[in-house]
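This entry is listed below:
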Amino acid sequence: MNIEWDSKTYGEKCAFVGEYGKGVVDLLSVPPGARVLDLGCGRGELTAYLAQRGWNAEGMDASKAQLADAKRRFPEIVFFEGDITSFEVEKRYDAVFSNAVLHWIDKDSQPDALAHVRAALKTGGEFVFEMGGKGNAAAIHAALKEEILARGGTYRHDFFFPDEAEYSALLEAAGFEVRYASLFERPTPLKGEDGIADWIGVFAKNELSGLPEGQRRAAALAAQERLKGALFADGIWTADYVRLRMKAVAV
């Protein structure tokens, strides 16, 4: 799924992505000094966190804007551009880490992505990740769909939100052995008085593309209003997140 990232807005509105990702790091069991690739590293916060934990961390992302920001913020770390469905590396890694990235890859492209992750890993190497799981942000996407269709627009939803069994099967077919899998609800507080609308503006650009540009913010705000009874309390908007967290080993 192609999307143009606004690195500044992402950093201001979506810092929670990196903060929650620190918990995923705890699934890694490779020794200090091991080579770890942060796949879809974004602005580099988690790559830097991996390095702080003692690993030889590098970051890869497809967004030039995000990579430029990462290189500026963490000049001591190696960052490089790559597409998860086609990247290649000269030297294999001991582990690949990924947070909030794999759900951006459409279902048909998942086998290619996992094949390239497997090729980037040594045999016995670890693949640790978290992604959106089955039911992720379902209320937000349903409300947005209603508003887009009500305005005569077209609605597309390209995210892939699997459950444990579906993704385990994909991993096994790509040459991995699953060691851990957990699908869980994680209501996620959002910043700002228009937290849901801002979230839509960052993460649902492809869905909003079904409307003329002048109607997109109004649709996001109207979707937010639909959700006030369910996702707003004590002055805080909360995204209805469901996450899939897994660990697999290359065999």
